[in-house]
Amino acid sequence: MSPNERGHYPIAPLKVELGKWSGSYQNQTQIWLRWWDSDGNLLLTGQERAEKAEAEVARLRALLQERGIDPDTVL
């Protein structure tokens, strides 16, 4: 198999790619094999998705508070 222009190995029937990713996972920083979608977007782990969602909730709460709205009373 040959890598694509991103250096990933596409698996066309699944519309995913396998490629190298440098970063930290489970307190270990190194090069990992990670899954990417066919557009080259990294597919997040469950923990990464949860962290992203928590950050978005915190951002939205702060925005509401800046506008004088109590986030705990919004339905």
Give the SSE layout.
Blueprint: E1 9-11, E2 16-25, E3 28-37, H1 46-66
Antiparallel strand pairs: 1-2, 2-3
Structural class label: alpha+beta
- For the termini, the CA-CA separation is 52 Å
Biggest β-sheet strands, sense, barrel? 3 strands, antiparallel
Q: Total number of helical segments?
A: 1
The quaternary state of the protein chains shown equals: single chain
State the gist of this model.
The chain has 75 residues and is of the alpha+beta class.
Describe the structure.
- By secondary structure, the chain is α+β, with helices and mostly antiparallel strands.
- The protein contains one helix and three strands; from the N terminus they run E-E-E-H.
- The chain has one helix at 46-66; strands at 9-11, 16-25, 28-37.
- The chain has a three-stranded antiparallel sheet with strand order 1-2-3, with no helix packed on it.
- A hairpin with a 4-residue loop joins strand 1 (9-11) and strand 2.
- The longest helix has 21 residues, at 46-66.
- The protein is elongated.
Key structural traits:
three-stranded antiparallel sheet; elongated; 75 residues; alpha+beta; 1 helix
